[in-house]
Amino acid sequence: MTTREYRKGATTLRGDRVPGTTTDARLLDNAESSDWLHTDPWRVLRIQSEFVEGFGALAELGPAISVFGSARTPVDSPYYALGEQVGRLIAEAGYAVITGGGPGAMEAANKGAMAAGGTSVGLGIELPFENGLNPYVDLGVNFRYFFARKTMFVKYAEGYVVLPGGFGTLDELFEAITLVQTQKVTSFPVVLLGSDFWTPMIDWLRGSLLAHGMISEADVERLHVVDDPREAVDLIVSSNDERRAAAGRPE
Ligand SMILES: C/C(=C\CNc1ncnc2c1ncn2[C@@H]1O[C@H](COP(=O)(O)O)[C@@H](O)[C@H]1O)CO
């Protein structure tokens, strides 16, 4: 018995699964529906293009520190002032500032970096209620997919500074410490700025996660809580210097 067979890239289709038309015939037929544009295989190419564009845009960025924090921090909040100061100090230390490019704490850090003449990066994300990149970004890359964007925050930064924030900020923070815990990234300092905001979370981590044996003391100690933005920057810069020296790569 001969079975009809059709090869579609890596996939072999037989019998009733063989389509009535070929891929290139469908491509050349401009009367066809454009539904295929929204199918998962096509999305993979879009995802791939986000990585290619992100890697291309950031390849020559040089040393950088990612700063996270609430999109809702008002301009007159002390946390906004803290974001601006840390952005400025990062730039003065010769590092680029990478943020999510949005409003609030992200804008504050970009503003500080730009005022200090540093490189101010915004990795924007397509959201239903998005406002576009804040005006203090001078190198912006826009993403459709959170996971592609999150790769850039880790890959191009020497450490994270985390200002008070909501779910988005916690997601970025906990992703970073999970990557450190699972040794996907090594010696990656994570500094939480604003002890009034972060200490209750550290207490909960100890009182619940650590008490139930779900994390170790070393995991909690990876999170540095500080109030002074200079201390936050110094912690990351010195850890980076130590790492470079250990790898035989002086500054
Ligand atoms: C909520 C509003 C706008 C949201 N715009 C954002 N633009 C860029 N990046 C964002 C945005 N919202 C969240 N993020 C990412 O998560 C972190 C902040 O989230 P949180 O829930 O506000 O803490 C931030 O670091 C970004 O990377 C309009 O006000």
Automatic annotation (TrEMBL):
GO terms for biological process: cytokinin biosynthetic process. Residues 1-21 are annotated as: Disordered. One of its GO terms (cellular component) is cytosol. It holds the Pfam family Lysine_decarbox. SUPFAM superfamilies: MCP/YpsA-like. Its EC number is 3.2.2.n1. This is Cytokinin riboside 5'-monophosphate phosphoribohydrolase. It comes from Luteipulveratus halotolerans.
